[in-house]
Structure formats: C-alpha cells, structure tokens
Amino acid sequence: MNNVPKNLYNKTPILILGFNRPNLLRELIKRIKVFEPEKIYISIDGARKKNTKDKKLIEKIKKKVLNEISWDCDLKTKFFENNYGVKNAPVKGINWFFENEEMGVILEDDVNPDISFFPFIASLLNKYKYDHKIMMISGNNYIYSKHKIKENYYFSKSPGTHGWATWKRSWKKFDLSMMNFTKFDFLKILYYFNFNLAKTHYFYKRFLLCKNDKIQTWDYQHFYSIINNNGLIIKPNINLCKHIGWELESGEESSHGKGADDLPDVINQTMTFPIVHPKSISQNYILDDIEDKKLRKLFFFKYFFYLISKKLKLTT
Predict the structure, then answer these.
(1) DSSP E strand stretches across the chain
(2) Domain 6-315: which CATH class?
(3) DSSP 253
(4) How would DSSP label each residue in 50-73?
(5) How far is CA 16 from CA 31, 108, 301, in A?
(6) What SS3 class is residue 197?
(7) Residue 161 DSSP code
C-alpha cells in the first residue's frame, strides 16, 4: 500500500453484517486484523424459527469467532433475537450503525476486501464528507476496460454494494418501503440515466418489484434513494472487494450468491497511493456503459428484443 500510515484509516468505523456463517466472519476479521481498526460494529441476524443449526452457528460466533478481535478495539455487537431476513436485517444493522456514527464502512460477511480498500475509503469519506452530491463509495469495479483512466476512481450512476461506505447524511434519505415511488418516477429515472431506455427499464422494473415486496432485498431501494436525490457513486479504477458468495470451509452458501462465482474474472487488486483525484465531479459515461453491458447485458436492441419476445410468449 505504498506505506500509507495506519492512522489514516484504522480510525474509520466498520460495520460487519452477518448471520449464520462463523467461518466467513472469522476470515473477514482476520483480514482486517492487519491494521487493527479502532471501532467495529457487528450486527448478526437471529436464528430462524425452530432452526437449531442457526442457533449453534450463531452461538459459535458469540463464543469463539469474536475472540479473533484480540487487539484494543471499541467493539459493539448486536445479536437480534428474531430472524429478520436478507431484506430487513441489514437495514436494521445499518440504522443502528448510523445512530452512533457520522460515516463508515459497511461489509457483509461474504465480502473479501483488499487491505488497500480501507485507506482508499477513509480518504474519500473525509474528502467528500460535506459534498451531498456524492452519496456512496463503492469498493467494486466489475469491468476490465480498454478505456483506462489515470485517476484512482471515477463517478458513476451504477450501484455496487459488495464492500462500500457512506455517510449518515446519505443513509437518512433511504426508505426501505419506497413510500414515494410511483409509476411517474420512470421519467425521473430516465432523466437520471441520460435517457438510456434500456437501463431505465431494467432498474424501474426492479424498483417496482421491491415496492410491491416481490424481491427480498434492500440494495435496490438504496440505489433508488441515490437516484431520487440525483446523487453520484464513487467507484475505484480497480476492484477492491470480492464477493465470495459461498463458504469454502463449511460449504454453506451465502443467502444471495448461490453456486459458482458468476464473475470469476473480477479479482481484487491493490490501490496505489497517493490517490489521484478526478478533475471534475461528473459521471464517467463510458465506464458505466461498459459495466451495464458486461454485468447487466444492457445492449439496447438485444434487451428490447428480449422484452418483446417475452411479452409475446405471455400472450400466446
């Protein structure tokens, strides 16, 4: 990390969200132990009803895994008595975190961060603390692009929550129920995405499913709050956080990431310092477009041909 002083980033609070995967949580704690963060919050969802396996695994976290935090650290834990699931438990954990902190890092237990992720995040959390246009910092770069940039990061209008950070000021705008979302928001989203119909339809459909409680998640709602406030997301020019998606030691899969890695070419790299900042705060259209095509398959004609063919199948 080019000898970045530890005190530049070990003071940034970290929230870890988990459930019944002690092996993954242990590996993540070992990862961050290298720089001994001063403040750690750990939020663990409760066991499902009549699920003795969940109870045993959560007890293992309480009695054994937390012992991995052996350095001098302000550790706060929240173990929910009830099971709130993949939609509500993370939100409750993040709400609790920002009841106590003005800014910080959020990691789920199935994320593997490169150590350089932390000084990168700490630097930008402080740099953009009062810039309300910037609403999130992602540790993700899902693309290998020929369009290399000289700067260490760029401004995006595409989400990435496999290792991220934000401020209390931004999280306050989050609404899990999407109370203010209506069909007329299609036009707002279309404008936000620079009149990209394919991308607008892609996310509008998912926001609608979230609004109607058809998708059990929280991150689409978070992205909607960024769109609703015309915000931007910072993304690194390399990938800093890898979504593991499964637990190698126990074989227990993550709640969302089932089976094999669907992005095997996305690997962690190490950020160089000092950070080179973009000259202006504006979306990098080229890199967002590359990501949309690779990750979401949003080729304009192919996407609408797929939608039309799907609709025809439903009517025949």
Answers:
(1) 14-18, 39-44, 74-79, 103-108, 111-113, 134-138, 153-156, 164-167, 232-236, 241-243
(2) alpha beta
(3) B
(4) T-HHHHHHHHHHHHTGGGG--SS-
(5) 12, 6, 41
(6) helix
(7) -
Where along the chain do its domains lie?
6-315
Residues 6+ apart with CB under 8 A from 15: 41, 42, 43, 93, 94, 97, 104, 105, 106, 107
Q: How far is CA 124 from CA 39, 275, 276, in A?
A: 18, 9, 11
190: helix, strand or coil: helix
- Cα four-point dihedral sign 171, 176, 180, 182: positive
Q: What is the pLDDT along the chain (316 residues), one digit of tens a residue?
A: 555 656 678 999 999 999 999 999 999 999 999 999 999 999 999 999 999 999 999 999 999 999 999 999 999 999 999 999 999 999 999 999 999 999 999 999 999 999 999 999 999 999 999 999 999 999 999 998 778 899 999 999 999 999 999 999 999 999 999 999 998 999 999 999 999 999 999 999 999 999 999 999 999 999 999 999 999 999 999 999 999 865 444 444 444 445 567 788 889 999 999 999 999 999 999 999 999 999 999 987 766 676 677 666 655 5
Q: Whole-angstrom Cα distance, residue 188 to residue 207?
A: 13
Q: Give the separation between CA 240 and CA 270, rounded to whole angstroms.
A: 7
Per DSSP bridges, beta strands 103-108 and 164-167 are: antiparallel
pTM of the model: 0.91
> Which amino acid is residue 52, in one-letter code?
T
